[in-house]
Design a protein that fits this description.
The chain has 79 residues and is α+β, with helices and mostly antiparallel strands. The protein is 38% helix and 15% strand. The protein is flat, with a radius of gyration of 13 Å. It starts with 11 loop residues before the first helix and ends with a helix.
């Protein structure tokens, strides 16, 4: 997280080289700045998938998160 918590744009070069599928999630009831950060991160490449966890904030209920992770790791899609 070093250097990414100040509100400045994410350093794109640091993450564009990631070649594996990446699930980027945020809580639908979370802070706007966190949603914006997740959206920006997910826009960095075709291998990034954005998923909103409806009704969740920064403290995501594990019962909500577990099925999303299970689906992503087994099918490559969060739902």
């Amino acid at each position: 997280m070093s250097g990414t918590m100040s509100g400045r744009p994410l350093p794109a070069g640091r993450r564009r080289s990631v070649g594996i599928p990446v699930l980027v999630g945020h809580g639908g009831a979370g802070e706007t700045y966190m949603a914006n950060g997740a959206k920006e991160l997910a826009s960095l490449g075709d291998n990034y998938t954005l998923h909103v966890l409806p009704g969740q904030d920064h403290s995501v209920d594990p019962h909500v998160l577990a099925p999303v992770l299970t689906s992503f790791f087994t099918t490559g899609r969060p739902d």
